[in-house]
Design brief:
Blueprint: H1 3-26, E1 29-30, E2 34-36, E3 41-43, E4 48-50, E5 54-56, E6 61-63, E7 68-70, E8 75-76, E9 81-83, E10 85-87, E11 103-105, E12 108-110, E13 115-116, E14 121-122, E15 127-128, E16 133-134, E17 139-140, E18 148-151, E19 156-160, H2 163-171, H3 176-180, H4 190-197
Parallel strand pairs: 1-4, 2-5, 3-6, 4-7, 5-8, 6-9, 7-12, 8-13, 9-14, 12-15, 13-16, 14-17, 16-18
Antiparallel strand pairs: 10-11, 18-19
Length: about 210
């Protein structure tokens, strides 16, 4: 990668991180090495907590009136939609049809080290257990157990991940985003950054 390309990436990174940090400052809490791609909508950010080493893809939509927690090490694909609130349509004192002006709110939690593929929709009040995987296009209407792999509409359990492998990698601290990126510095991979800072050899003279 030439100098001009690196300079352009550095400029784009700086501008985008400035915008992200404005959002981060309004959040309830946010960890290190967190990156959210463009065209996101998070409201209200004051109700959102994000752990370390979290990546969120493009066009992320989160209505967080009920509260949203995203655990460390979690990767979320593009066009994911999370809703923690909804219209009141079925209470005994319903005031109009098909729903009234009141909203209901339920918190949502995504555990540590989850992988949420693209175009996934979560309904309010759902908890995704640690290490779970949610397949592309799934509609998650109920809690997902830890280490479960779910897919479909509505999402159903397909299988479970190997707990022994999961626990070993977690104990060794082998978290993909932490190993591969340092988004607090750049969107380049760590390997690219290390090559960038590597000094040329002196020719091997003794």
């Amino acid at each position: 990668m030439n100098i001009l390309s690196r300079a352009y990436i550095a400029l784009v990174d700086w501008r985008w991180r400035r915008k992200l940090h404005k959002t981060f400052r309004r959040m309830k809490s946010v960890g290190r090495n967190v990156y959210i791609r463009e065209d996101y909508s998070i409201f209200p950010p004051e109700n959102v907590s994000i752990g370390d080493n979290v990546y969120i893809g493009e066009h992320f939509l989160a209505r967080a009136e009920g509260g949203l927690t995203i655990g460390s090490g979690t990767l979320i694909g593009r066009y994911t939609e999370i809703r923690t609130s909804g219209h009141n349509y079925n209470s005994p004192d319903l005031q109009s049809l098909p729903y009234d002006s009141r909203m209901t709110h339920f918190p949502m939690v995504i555990g540590e080290n989850c992988w949420i593929a693209s175009h996934v929709t979560f309904v309010r009040g759902v908890t995704v257990g640690e290490g779970a995987v949610v397949g592309m296009g799934a509609v998650v209407t109920k809690d997902v157990p830890p280490l479960a792999v779910v897919a479909g509409n509505p999402a159903r359990i397909i299988k479970y991940r190997d707990r022994e492998v999961y626990e070993r990698l977690k104990a060794e601290g082998k978290i993909y985003l932490d190993m591969t990126y340092d988004y607090d510095r750049s969107t380049l991979k760590k390997s690219e950054l290390s090559r960038r800072g590597r000094k040329p050899q002196d020719g091997g003279n003794a």
